[in-house]
Amino acid sequence: MQIRVINPNTTLAMTTKIGAAAQRIAAPGTDVVATQPASGPVSIESHFDEAISAVGVLEEVLAGERDGVDAYVIACFGDPGLLAARELTRAPVIGIAEAAFHMAALISTRFSIVTTLGRTGIIAEHLLEQYGFRHHCRRVRAAEIPVLDLEENGEMALNRIIDECRRARDEDNIGAIVLGCGGMADLTGEISRAVGLPVIEGVTAAVKLAEAVVGLGLGTSKQGDLAFPRPKAFTGQFEHFSGLTPTGRELPKQK
Ligand code: 2AL
């Protein structure tokens, strides 16, 4: 099984870290290929960053379809381009925010999210509403670190995240903590040991969910709004999307 883990930002160090965390958690026989868009923001911290990065995510899914990829993970906590990506493939596409919410809800009745910046925390609140997890989440907290601090000031960033996770544990009456950034993919063990609560992180959760969906012989439904987009003309810099037709692998027959 090949899982393409797409880091929607263009910071190679983060893509490499995300790929390593994904491969470590993957089952024997699962091959992880970590990629990033050719162009776009170096980190995603706003609606604007998300909108630009979503096009890069879609380009990466189209490239994956040509390679016969079995499942995709969108490794940014805003899940940029998630539903559009699903339109392009029969394979499952899992966003790390939705994966983390589902996983946390399976092991606790209440969780808090600890993310990077307060403003991205608001984006996470929108996703909780959209995905139906509002009542599972007690509080969205921010360590107030820019995303790239996870690469450039790793120790300081980790300490601030741990401090915020401890506050969540002591004040929020929760059973688990969700880490709210793809760049935190390698931190679950250390934070869980420091805080004494289960810590869920979306990249690793998404890889295990993608394996489960593929293992069940399931994939993205092509009935309704997730059907392939109707082929049409695109102009200007998006001309290469003109007349897009379905590619990629057929799903295995469901047992
Ligand atoms: C993110 C993320 O996961 N990657 C990135 O560049 N920005 N989102 C976040 N909430 O920090």
Order of helix and strand elements from N to C terminus: EHEHEHEHEHEHHEHEH
Provide the domain count: 2
Q: Give the number of helices.
A: 9
Helix content: 40-55%
What is the strand tally? Answer: 8
Q: Which CATH architecture of the largest domain?
A: 3-Layer(aba) Sandwich
Q: How many strands, which pairing sense, and closed or not: the largest β-sheet?
A: 4 strands, parallel
How would you describe the shape? globular
Bound molecules: 1-(2,5-dioxo-2,5-dihydro-1H-imidazol-4-yl)urea
Radius of gyration: 18 Å
CATH class of the largest domain reads Alpha Beta
Residue runs with pLDDT of under 50 for 5 or more positions: none
The end-to-end distance, rounded to whole angstroms, is 18 Å
Organism: Billgrantia montanilacus
Family: Belongs to the HyuE racemase family.
Protein name: Hydantoin racemase
GO molecular function: amino-acid racemase activity; hydantoin racemase activity
Q: What's the gist of this structure?
A:
The protein is of the alpha/beta class and 255 residues long. The protein has nine helices and eight strands.
